[in-house]
Design brief:
164 residues; mainly beta; Jelly Rolls; four-stranded antiparallel β-sheet
């Protein structure tokens, strides 16, 4: 009986872990009670095949404590040679009726947000992705110091096409 349970669990583990053939990198970092304005979240990417193309995603988990319908982020991609490409990004987090756009059954919703598609990492070495929130209240000059309701920030890399 115990061997049957073990084999069933092993089979389920193998099946579930093999379902994500396009994933190359997937890492999350937890935010403390709130995401501070000056808190930068950095991901060191693995060395990637320069001949492959990749799709890049920013993953966010939020709770009902998040009080906004959108999210502004500043992203930096640092190349191995030191060059930095900075983008200001805006993502919708809720529909016009207030319903969260992320997936999940509890009050934590997960959002898989497009960052870049069909990217080649042609330089050899370590690339770094840094994310920082850039939220402001309408009509105000200064940003929100403590952004509540974001629990985890992640970065995901997928093969743009199924690997050979």
């Amino acid at each position: 009986m115990i061997n049957l349970r073990f084999l069933t669990l092993l089979f389920l583990f193998v099946v579930l872990s093999s379902c994500d053939d396009i994933r190359v990198f997937d890492e999350y970092k937890t935010v403390s009670s709130s995401w501070e304005k000056d808190e930068k979240i950095t991901f060191d990417l693995p060395v990637l095949d320069s001949l492959e193309q990749y799709n890049l995603f920013i993953n966010l988990r939020n709770t009902n404590d998040y009080r906004y319908s959108n999210l502004f982020l500043i992203s930096e991609m640092e190349f191995p040679n030191g060059k930095i490409v900075t983008d200001t990004l805006e993502y919708d987090m809720a529909a016009s009726n207030g319903e969260w756009l992320g997936t999940g059954f509890s009050d934590v919703k997960e959002n898989k947000l497009w960052y870049k598609e069909n990217v080649n990492f042609v330089e050899k070495g370590v690339y770094k992705i840094t994310l920082q929130h850039a939220m402001r209240k309408n009509g105000e000059t200064f940003g929100i110091n403590s952004l509540e309701g974001i629990t985890d920030i992640g970065f995901r890399i997928e093969f743009a096409q199924n690997p050979k």
